[in-house]
Write a structure and sequence with these properties.
The protein has two domains: 230 residues, Rossmann fold; 59 residues, Histone, subunit A (Orthogonal Bundle). Helix 2 links the parallel strand 2 and strand 3. It is globular and about 65 Å long. The chain is built from 14 helices and six strands. It has 313 residues and is α/β, with parallel strands linked by helices. Helix 5 crosses helix 6 and helix 12 runs antiparallel to helix 13. Its cofactor is Mg(2+). GO terms for molecular function: ATP binding; tRNA dimethylallyltransferase activity. It comes from Cryomorpha ignava.
């Protein structure tokens, strides 16, 4: 439930390639905002083309946070992101500006809005699961996760063995479903969100995705993937756009097939994102063409909060 007596956090959600960056920049320039990335791969300096980071020109227009802050060799978790993002949001609010969080990764967005329980870890169990994967393969790993939490399996990248292994570790240790590890009651925050969801008709979104992949390849995605191949088992690289190229480098198929798979897997990822977004409470849905309506909604929200704060004072 939105608390209109608290300072505003604008949250922009939507599937990959739907137009979140362009909207965030337009809002930021209109309302004197700063932007926080909730994309779990844009944190890494080495990953630029394949993560569709804002361009240097776009980054120069508006202050951005939590982009290019890590090396691919560094570990980063949703829990760390929660702490970093909340700290940055509070700092932006202290300056009198409005923070915009752009997502991104569902778990990371949820971590900021609601908070996460501490996720359990056991090195011995993780080693056992890794050995299981080496012996039995990806399908067996998927089935092991399906046995404990089929819903969560349907929500994540089922070909990312690193993420599957971590999920199995957490779930087998906790003995509860992943959704139950999110707090039943949200952590207290100094801000309250206005959530904007962007959507396009699926055929149009899929065409946009295909064009974006072609543009990424022309921009040098193949070379970018080669530069990080030494870290290919890192969770951030077991994702669409990189894992397909790693398989191409290993001789599993040709480059044309790799590009086809990137397009297909990106479309599948977008579909999973929309499935998750449909379950988000208090989301206000728009298309990218509705920018004026979105601006009006934000103006109305700011006016309501000013009036509520006068009443509280």
């Amino acid at each position: 439930m939105t608390d209109t007596t608290k300072p505003l956090l604008i949250v922009i959600l939507g599937a990959t390639a739907v137009g979140k960056t362009a909207l965030a920049l337009a809002i930021a320039k209109k309302f004197n905002c700063e932007i926080i990335s909730a994309d779990s791969r844009q944190f890494y300096r080495e990953l630029t083309i394949g993560t569709a980071k804002p361009s240097k020109e776009e980054l120069a227009l508006v202050p951005h946070h939590l982009i290019d802050m890590l090396s691919i060799s560094e570990d980063y978790t949703a829990g760390k992101f929660e702490n970093d993002a909340v700290r940055v949001i509070d700092q932006i609010l202290e300056t009198g500006k409005i923070p915009i969080m752009v997502g991104g990764s569902g778990l990371y967005v949820k971590a900021v809005l609601e908070g996460l329980d501490s996720l359990p870890s056991n090195p011995n169990l993780r080693t056992e699961i890794e050995d299981f994967y080496e012996r039995e393969g990806l399908e067996a790993l998927q089935n092991r996760l399906k046995a404990v939490d089929p819903v969560y399996l349907s929500q994540i990248d089922q070909h990312n063995h690193v993420r599957l292994i971590r999920a199995i570790e957490i779930l087998e240790l906790s003995k509860v479903k992943m959704k139950d590890l999110l707090r039943d009651s949200a952590k207290r925050r100094n801000f309250s969100p206005l959530i904007i969801g962007l959507e396009k008709p699926r055929p149009i979104l899929y065409k946009t995705i295909d064009k974006r992949v072609d543009a990424m390849m022309k921009a040098g995605l193949e070379a970018e993937a080669k530069n990080v191949i030494a870290f290919k088992d890192n969770q951030a690289l077991q994702t669409v756009g990189y894992k397909e190229l790693f398989a191409y480098f290993d001789g599993e198929y040709n480059l044309k097939r790799a590009v086809e798979l990137i397009k297909r897997n990106t479309r599948h990822y977008a579909k999973r994102q929309m499935t998750w977004l449909r379950k988000v409470d208090d989301i206000n849905w728009f298309t990218p063409a509705d920018q004026d309506k979105i601006i009006d909604l934000i103006k109305s929200e700011l006016k309501t909060r000013r009036q509520k704060n006068k009443t509280v004072d």
